[in-house]
Design a protein that fits this description.
The chain is α/β, with parallel strands linked by helices and 489 residues long. It has twelve helices and 26 strands. Strands 2, 3, 4, 7, 8 and 11 form a six-stranded parallel beta sheet that branches. A five-stranded antiparallel beta sheet has the order 12-13-19-15-16, with no helix packed on it. A four-stranded antiparallel beta sheet has the order 1-14-18-17. The longest helix has 17 residues.
Length: 489
Amino acid sequence: MRDLLKILLFTLIISQVSILPNILYKDLIPESVLRDDTTLIGQVDVKRWQDDKSSAFSFSFDDGLLSQYTFAFPTLEQYGFKGTFYLIPPYVTDSLPGIWRYGSWREFIEASDSGHEIGSHSMTHPHFPDLEIGDTLLEGSLLFELYQSKQIIDSKLPDKNCITFAYPYSEHNTIVDYFTSLFYQSARAVGPESNSYSLSDSAWFGLNSFPFTFDLPRDSLFDDLDEFEDFKNWVQSSIAQSSWAIMQTHETLPYSLLQDAIQAGLYEPVASEWFELVCNWIYDQTINNHVWVAAVGDVTKYMKERDSYFTNLLSVTSDKIQIELSDTLDNAIYNFPITADIIVPDNWNEITLIQGSTTSFYNSFFDGVNFIVRVQVIPDAGMIELYNGHLSSVESIAELMPDDFLLYQNYPNPFNPSTKIKFDLKNRSHVELSIFDMLGREITKLVDSEFESGAHEVTFDAKELASGIYFYKILVGNNQEVKKLILSK
């Protein structure tokens, strides 16, 4: 039966590439199909949530209020949690004292430097469904509110990328969602239910979040314990569904300041003592592998990478496994590590993983069926190389490299209009590097010359080509390798 399945799989693959010249067949067919045995070594399984936790959870804070930095930020840091702070950029000043209640850029830049996400909450906090669409330069229009707020945040945090949005008053519709999607990767609204572990395109722009409401009086932590039980039940339901819960918070103040805030009509202020209780309980859930806590943007990246990844097993030897891990997303944004289980030989106990310039060390475990190594890897960040043993020097790693060359996945991929192709040579060699279309026709020859040993990089400019799937092939001596690249204009 297994042999029949292998034949059917082989036939399916050949049917997809039969129009390519014979020189490409070998390179486009996974090695696992060509082998005579039925081993699963090198098989990759990306976990639903980071570190294989049962669910995901995000802390989110609206408006950019000083109390969030003063009281919530230290508590998050204490527990190692990273949250998302949605700012109204014009309300955030360059120094304090600034606009009443709002923080300064110094506080939120510090939070960003510590790993927290800075998201956008519009320019003036208007009712979005009531706005004309306008353009990015027309004040008071929808496009102005969406675009200019992102531009300000990106200018203040040039090494980051503002990718998530929170709708003012949580108001949105399909038109608002569409224009928001032009600038952001996800947008947060409101709703008591947690978000599914896999979302449709439209659902990304209506993420549910839960702002907790509190019954009066609120003179001490004891008065808010019933809401704490509601919070625990809400998260436990999310854990049971393996879903993603997002908590929405505005003011965070100690009980000594809470009564004045309530009298001033501030929207559902959260007591910092209650917030500490929440963080302590959530921390216990992370220790027990029930909850992965991350910023909204990081969960967005993880989920989209997880749902679009594909792998190619390049080679397996007794000492090394080579795997290509890719996705169809923008590599400039989607560069977040995802958790993957990879099947390894049963005599591999200690393992070295190399991806790009990153080297990590792991130990394998038995899952009841196979020996597994659980790793953190990034799609399109370079070939994944697993070595048997904890290699302690560059020399020992080099001894296990291929005799002739290493060809890396192009970056970025997809690309528009140019991308870089990297390869390493063991020795001085004559190298040919060519681009082919889906019909196997050579589009251009990028390289046809001698290269010294070491690392090399070539730029491919495809501005004259149409969007689509192409292939690049390297020929070094009598050895060759083919990889796929995607042009998306």
